[in-house]
Amino acid sequence: MKGLFLTLEGIDGAGKSSHIDALEALFTAQGRQVTRTREPGGTPLAETLRALILEQPMDPLTESLLVFAARRDHVVRVIEPALARGDVVLCDRFTDATFAYQGAGRGFDPAVLSTLEGWVQADADAAARGLLQPDITVWFDLAPEIAAERLAGARVPDKFESQPVEFFKRVAAGYAARAKDAPRFVRIDADQSREAVWQQIEAALAERGLVASQSGGAP
Ligand SMILES: Nc1ncnc2c1ncn2[C@@H]1O[C@H](COP(=O)(O)OP(=O)(O)OP(=O)(O)O)[C@@H](O)[C@H]1O
Ligand SMILES: Cc1cn([C@H]2C[C@H](O)[C@@H](COP(=O)(O)O)O2)c(=O)[nH]c1=O
To answer: Which residue has a Cα nearest atom 1 of ligand 1?
Structure first.
């Protein structure tokens, strides 16, 4: 069976992580093997880099280089082998987050990010297959003010979660711009109950023939 690369995206607090268990259960119930992972992270080296990226102050180029270094290790060691086995790869964030956070949020040059993307997501057969990209990206669209309310008191904020709402408005606009150009994006109205958000996700996957309709329960 062909692998499926599904990514979850959105600003901090949009509700992505709340639905990963249910997504895993949904695909498992369809007889699929699921590899569940996240970025930055997903390998021992990338998790080490994640701690630096999320906690240490650094300039946008350093941040972008570390994010892509973590991604390269993750792609080579986890994502590509899982897709080659035919797994469903559920990845909490991928390169769209870099364009949204480092590009739109930090104001870093998207042309440099595209160059790094070309190096990191290419493989020996890239000329034939093109760059590794998600098959489907579930984008949780939520107003930054609401996301901030949801996160308030939920956990100790990291470097990104401590950013002002203006930063997240730029990140949200960055996601909207990415979604406009890429049919793989599925926009989820995240300003709804968990149940209603889950129904949107399940319906979008069923519409694309990725799961049988109405097969899973709400998270
Ligand atoms: N539909 C919802 N309505 C109200 N609160 C929600 C909803 N979905 C999630 N939450 C709550 O909002 C907070 C953020 O949710 P979650 O951790 O899933 O977001 P996230 O997008 O994964 O955030 P991050 O990227 O920062 O890890 C949590 O406290 C969660 O319980
Ligand atoms: C992949 C990626 C992530 N980030 C930021 C976005 C979030 O604030 C954190 C990850 O935390 P989460 O709770 O696991 O969502 O990292 C980034 O700035 N650039 C990236 O490429």
So the answer is: 194
Confidence of residue 216 (pLDDT cuts 50, 70, 90): very low
Ligand nearest to the CA of 105: 2
Q: Specify the pTM.
A: 0.96
The model's pLDDT over 59-78, given as tens digits with 9 standing for 90+, comes to: 999 999 999 999 999 999 99
Which of 112, 105, 101 has its CA nearest to residue 65?
Answer: 112
* Listed residue (190, 211, 150, 193) closest to 23, CA to CA: 211
Which pLDDT score is estimated for 155? 82
Q: What are 189's two structure tokens?
A: 């109205």
Locate the DSSP E strands across 142-180: none
Is the CB–ligand 1 distance for residue 159 below 6 Å?
A: no
CA of 178 to the centre of ligand 1 (A): 22
39 C-beta closer than 6 A to ligand 2: yes
* Euclidean distance between CA atoms 109 and 166, whole angstroms: 19
If residue 139 lies in a helix (H) or strand (E), which one and from where to where? strand 136-141
Q: Sign of dihedral through CA atoms 161, 165, 170, 174?
A: positive
ipTM above 0.95, yes or no: yes
Task: Return the residue matching tokens 């956070």.
Answer: 101
